[in-house]
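As a representative case, the lines below give one protein's residues and fold tokens.
***
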Amino acid sequence: MKLLVRNLARTTTAEELRLMFEALGKVQSCSLVIDKETGKSKGFAFIEMPRPGDAKAAVKTLNGKTLGGNIIRVKKAAPKQPVIEKTDLQKTATVSQESETKKAEIKEPKKVTKVKKVKEVEKKNTDINRNIWSK
């Protein structure tokens, strides 16, 4: 069973985690997630325990415990969602839909602009007519 351990101190090592979890059962793997740019811990890790009973005991025992000054959270890890690649047909359909949307957005303001110009011309004509009749 795969477990997610969160809120780890940045100074916590994979070996410390492994020792902590091995006290409750066999640990198959321990993966501390490291930031590629800085080389430091991101503050969470994945622990794999082959026996579900040991994993459940670890969650119950270690969730809420303090490690490195932080209260850690331990829970069952959700399965990783597969990344679905778009096929060429789907990509083409998406691009054509986006271009139609952009065309519609471009056309809409032009209509509004023409209406405004017509109203401005009518207003000027009205002002001219008022000036003629008011003399």
Summary: The chain has three helices and six strands. The helical segments are 14-22, 52-62, 88-134. The chain has a mean pLDDT of 79. The first helix runs from residue 14 to 22.
